[in-house]
Amino acid sequence: MGVHRKTRNLELVLDAFRNAQKALSAQLLMERLPTEVNRSTVYRLLDRLEDDGVVHSFLASENIKFYALCKECTQSGHVHSHAHFQCNSCSQVVCLEQDVVVPILNQHRVDEAQVLLKGQCAACMQ
Amino acid sequence: MGVHRKTRNLELVLDAFRNAQKALSAQLLMERLPTEVNRSTVYRLLDRLEDDGVVHSFLASENIKFYALCKECTQSGHVHSHAHFQCNSCSQVVCLEQDVVVPILNQHRVDEAQVLLKGQCAACMQ
DNA sequence: GCATTATTGCAACACAGTCGCATTAATTAT
DNA sequence: ATAATTAATGCGACTGTGTTGCAATAATGC
Fold first, then answer.
1. What is the pTM of this model?
2. Model pLDDT, residue A97
3. Which of A3, B5, B11, B78 ranks highest by number of CB atoms within 10 Å?
4. Which nucleotide is nearest to A4 (CA to C1')?
5. Which residues of A touch B115 (CB under 8 A)?
6. CA separation (Å) from B87 to A51, A75, A83, A114, B117?
7. pLDDT of residue B38
8. Mean pLDDT over the full length of chain A
9. Is-contact A119 A84, C-beta < 8 A?
């Protein structure tokens, strides 16, 4: 787990993710924190949490990195064959249950698959 | 096709993609152009080519947008269920032939799937 | 050739994310 | 409990990708 101290900021970040129940960008995360936390600190916390297998990250629209709590990851390596969904209307991002069938390639060795499905979420289709 | 003029820069960009035979970021593209072309111009050309269905774009590592020539796209809409592969060692990005099986979701309507496979390419495995 | 207007280059900007460094605070040893 | 250690933080400056307004340039149609 590396060296860690149980700081207030760390708890705030984890609480935010638990309450959100979805993926958050650094920006969205900061907006959800009850007290202001420095931008650098937030990025550093996210990096650490990712290293420790607590959250995973992936890219969504507009070149923005999203983070979400991991369910099946260990520190030794992230396992993220599950897909992510982003709504083109409200931009919300969620982790999906579905695993993605990673094609077998003879020219390359695939270690990881990042899958982002885009479309409309239930709320925005009404 | 919108309104277009056959400019030297446009030809240079298209030639670069044809010669590259792989996906390029704006940065990589500029490095491959025989004469210097302004950064804004390059981005504007890429936007236009994407609108016209000539190239498609997707995000790779480090939040960098890559572009590649389209083979089956029309102006009316891009079709990109094929996957992309990026090598973790040399960072090269290529389009794969394989189509991706997009899972069926009852909570969302999926319009598009962005799939980035990451690992090691043949050249880097030696 | 001339007029029209798309394209270009420039400079300034916006934004996500990073880094060095001095300060603060969580943990450990005494 | 107090002091020492060092991880975590905040700040400011910075990097890199991508965008935008505007004046100058050049491709096209006549």
1. 0.84
2. 76
3. B78
4. D7
5. 100, 113-116
6. 20, 22, 20, 13, 9
7. 96
8. 85
9. no
